[in-house]
Amino acid sequence: MRGFIRIAIILVALVLALRWVIPRVALLSLSSVEGISPTYSSSTGSASTRKLRVLFIGDSYIYENNLAKMVTDIASSDPGNTTQIDTQSVTRGGAHLSELLETGDAISVINSQHWDYVVLQEQSTWYWDEEQVTKTFDAEKSFARAIRAAGATPVIYLTWIREPGSKWYQPPYVEETVDPQHMQTLLDNASILLGTSINAPVVAAGDAWGEVLKNDASLSLYQSDGSHPTPAGTYLVALMFYRFLTHNGVNEVGYQPDGVSSADNAYLHRLVDGY
Predict the structure, then answer these.
(1) Cα distance between residue 10 and residue 191, in whole Å
(2) Quick check: helix, strand or coil at residue 157?
(3) Which of 142, 174, 217, 237 would give a disulfide with 205, using CB separation of 3.0 to 4.6 Å?
(4) Total count of domains within the chain
């Protein structure tokens, strides 16, 4: 009898634990999807005049807050938008594009169906080391050949520097980072050269981040690690990609992520429409 009671207590504890865990796992799956994601599709309020399929390849700067899905959420919420956007992502935390190239998953997805654009996002410290820069250029060229062979256009996703004033500008990192302005210049120059080398457009999301850092210090784009984006940070990136893909202004976009105030939302709309 005691053994039965003991088992019953354990089962009740497991049920209670699962009641706590399962909803949170579901929430995480909505906000961060690592690996090969599902396909996300936008809806249009008016008749769709064209359809775009966009594949994002990279690391946690894509899957944190689910950038691919957020782009479609933005597209669905713009009343004047007539472009349906389908997105998918292939990601791995901390991975360089050379590693994603070697695994073969990204190439398989590129070849699996028609894409209009394939966005390439390199691991965020790639430009700190000359050897890694060489590997990145080689990987991007290989990806660009595969992307064009599949009938799509490669796009460079220019990310952002580490958060100014954070641990990244202190020992042991300071030899590589030096200071924020130095890092921004290095990143911009390397990314533009990268785009030129494969004849690909560059979506300068990181430069938009830089404008926020200069003009609105109260708007938090970084998580506490001084690297990864908050929902507001991903939202800014998604707005930049939406504008690039559709050439639409973002002033009428109705989507607003949790944690972004109406005032901050309006500010980000003005900022992106200025690009």
Answers:
(1) 55
(2) strand
(3) 237
(4) 2
